[in-house]
Design a protein that fits this description.
126 residues; mainly alpha; 6 helices; 59% helix
Length: 126
């Protein structure tokens, strides 16, 4: 594997993130050298994050919004996934709770960690 190094500081971390980012737009073919490189870099990034970043305990909708922003997804993308623009709006505006089925779709389709979405949270008062 070419050009892989330990992640020891923020500069190394930034480098690794920049290296894996293109793979999200153009996923490598399974079993290829690029797929192996992506897996190794992702593991290194995860290990560095686990050692250096304190997890933030977001409520589920705040987490979902942050995840969507980080991955370039919009409320329209959420509506497409959930099958309804109004349902996506109600979820984002905390007027409707996420269901197990919705959480499953978010995990399966977008890779959202389900454990970050299953916590209880308050809905907006009507």
């Amino acid at each position: 594997m070419d050009n892989i190094r330990p992640i020891r500081n923020q500069d190394d971390f930034d480098w690794a993130i920049a290296e894996v980012t293109p793979y999200f737009d153009h996923p490598p073919e399974k079993g290829s050298k690029d797929a192996d490189r992506f897996d190794v870099l992702s593991d290194l990034i995860e290990a560095y994050e686990n050692r250096n970043f304190v997890p933030v305990d977001h409520e589920p909708i705040a987490f979902l919004q942050g995840f969507m922003e980080m991955t370039g997804r919009t409320q329209s993308d959420l509506a497409e996934l959930l099958g309804s623009r109004s349902r996506a709006s109600e979820i984002i505006n905390r007027k409707r709770a996420l269901t197990v089925e919705m959480i499953f779709k978010l995990k399966q389709s977008w890779g959202v960690p389900a454990d970050c979405l299953v916590k209880p949270y308050r809905l907006a008062v009507a």
